[in-house]
Structures are given as C-alpha cells and as structure tokens.
Prior knowledge:
Elements: H1 9-13, E1 17-18, H2 29-41, H3 52-72, E2 78-83, H4 86-97, E3 106-109, H5 119-128, E4 131-134, H6 145-151, E5 156-162, H7 174-183, E6 187-191, H8 195-198, E7 210-214, E8 225-230, H9 231-234, E9 247-250, E10 255-257, H10 271-287, H11 289-310, E11 314-316, E12 326-331, H12 336-345, E13 348-349, E14 351-353, H13 358-364, E15 369-373, H14 380-400
Parallel strand pairs: 1-13, 3-4, 3-5, 5-6, 6-7
Antiparallel strand pairs: 2-8, 7-8, 9-10, 11-12, 12-15, 14-15
Helix pairs in contact: 2-10, 3-10, 11-14, 12-14
Residues 23, 85-87, 114, 116-117, 162, 166, 191, 193-194, 214, 216 line the site of pyridoxal-5'-phosphate (PLP).
Amino acid sequence: MIDYKKDFPLLVKGEWVYLNSAAQTLVPIPVLEAMNDYYTNIGANVHRGVDSLGYEATRLYDAAREKVAKLVGAKNKGKIIFTRGTTSAINLVAGSYGHNINKDDEIIISVSEHHSNFVPYQQLAKKQQAKLVFVELDENGCITPQNLKKAITEKTKMVVVSHMTNVLGSINDIQALAKIAHNAGAVIAVDGAQGIVHIPTQVEDWDIDFYCLGAHKMLGPTGIGAMYAKNEMFDKMQQVEMGGDMVDIVEEQETSYLDAPQGFEAGTPMIAEAIGWGRAIDYFLDIGYQKANERVGFLRKIMIDRMEKEVKDIIIYNKNNEHAPMVTFNIKGIHSHDCASVLDKHKVCVRAGHHCAQLIHKWMGTQSSVRASLMYYNDESDIDRMVEALKDVKDFINVLF
Ligand SMILES: Cc1ncc(COP(=O)(O)O)c(C=O)c1O
C-alpha cells in the first residue's frame, strides 16, 4: 500500500485525523518547497521591468496558468484569469458579465449552492431587476436535465450550477446542462470548487461558458483561484478591478485595457500562490483522478458501513451519492457542533454547521450537519478513529447535560 501521508507534515505527526478536505486540503511538501523556492531564490514581481529575476517570476507565473488551463481542459477556446479564490472568481463572473442581464430576465439557480455561488447572483438579480428562478432538485440534490428543461424559458439568460455540491456531494452533468442552457440562448456559469477535485474536467469539450475553481481544496495554497471563461465571453465582460498591470494606454481622460487574461488581473498578483498551485496540480495529476477516486470511494464505503453498524441514531444524508467524497450526517438529538466538538477532543477534524449552504439544509430538513470529507491521503485508521470517537458522542453530551 502506498503511503500517501508521507508528504503531509500534519499527517506524518499522526496526532490528528483530518477529515475536512472538502473545506481545505492539506498541502504536500513539494508545494511548500515550490513557494519557498520562489521567495528564497527569485522574489521579484511579474510583468514589470526587464530584469532576469522578474522574467523568471513571470515565466513561472504564466506556466502555472498553463497548468490550470490544462487541468480544466482549456486549450484554445478560453482563458484563465487568476483570482483570490473560488469566491472571488464567482464574483468576477457576476460583476463583470452581470450587466448583460436585463430587467425581467431570468437567472436559474438552485438551493443546493454554496453561499459563494448563490449570494453574488441573488444580488445581481436584485440590481438588474431580474428574476431568480429555482430549478427543482432530484432526491439526491442533483439538477437533472429534465428539471432544468422544466425551469428554462425564453427569458432565461443565465444558468448557475455547481459541478459538485459541497454538502451532499451531488454531481451535476454540466455538459448536458450546458446544452440545454445554450439551446435557450442562456450562458452557463459553473462553480467547480468541489468538482475539479474529483471529476476530470473538459470545459471546452463540454462547452462551458464560465468555470470557477480554487487551489486550496486540491493540495494548493490558500489565496488563489481562477475563473475560466470562453473567449467570446470576454467581449461582453467589463473590468471590475482596475489599476496597474492590466492597462494598455493611459491618457488623461481615457484608458484602454490589455486583453484577457492580464486585462482582468489588476495589481500585483498572487505569484507564490500561483507557483504553488501549479506544483500542486502536477503533484495531484501524478497520482491521478482514477487512483485518488478509487481510494476515496473505498474509504467512503467503509465509513458509511461502520457508521451505520456501530453508531447509534446516525442519520446519513447523502448515502446514495456514491461518488461523493464526503459523508454528511447527524446523530439524532445532538447538535452538529456538539458532535464535532467531541470529535475534536479525540483529535478528529470534521466540518460542522451549515457549511455556507443554509438553503440546502432547509431542503434536507435540518439546520446543520456534520461533514466528514475524504481525500486520497486518508486511510482506514482514520475511519477507525472517527467511528470510535462518534461512539463517544452521546455519552459525552449526556454527562454534560
Ligand atoms: C461548492 C463551493 N463553492 C464555493 C466555495 C468557496 O470557495 P472559497 O472559500 O475557496 O472561495 C466552496 C468552499 O467551500 C465550495 O465548497
């Protein structure tokens, strides 16, 4: 059995069981080294001056962009804009493309979205006096092509979906949804924060208009993400951030901007983070989606089996989403925060609360849940420790009250 933990210092120490990778993955040593190397041996800014250090920084920064493009399947028909994370990539879509939405137009969205992929479009609809239309979910929290067809009208200008949702791990067939959106004359904007980690993605083959993602859920650093957009979208987009590094000619009364990507990246970008992300992509692709997913699927199955057999009063919300990398649950009568606090005492790290997705919890009939999320670097001993800790939850809480 390959020891996948060996590159992750926190896991090597062995004190913690880390089951919170859907919130943030751990960063392997080669990624830390790549960022350290930039600061130690280069340190210069990008796209400025004529110095060799600056050129080298620029080369590495642009190479990272190529890696992100390859990761999402963008070769010829679109471009990658670096952003501060998935949230800011989504805000860039809503902010820069949003003026194309007019009064009484419709934006289709669902209650399964993370707040980052919901609030920007809710507020866009308000600002443009457009209507937010909710597509119905199937029993597993997915948006089916049939349900999208039912919701779409000639007024629909935008369809907003997640590739994979963050609470139930519901996977949407974004290629099929894109076809339906385009047939109705609408664009499709996809939140790929969770999806890109587990689903080999081909935005260009699938004809996706916008795809947003981040580095820190896929072995990369915090503080960087990206927005992919088709080339023709850039003709309809307005700059939302302006300043250095993105202009062509500045005159007293007028300014012209560089083409994308640089024209949409104002100011000093996240250089070390981009380099780290590029290294994280290489590192992850060396393992490959198939191996990573097989391992996550295997562990998820054991996790569910053991929880159902050994933990009294367990409610699992996403048992049928067999490709979900997370198990989302509650213990009857116990608040998710209490459950996660007991797990924390056992040094088991999970996510508890509404996971920035209040609407899907309302749909699930609860206010909050516990989410144990897996990455390929987890193993059976992690599940063992989580299940043992879960068995302690009811006793621990009952002693307190
Ligand atoms: C589905 C989904 N969308 C968007 C986000 C927001 O990502 P970030 O916090 O990296 O901007 C998350 C983060 O958990 C997510 O899971």
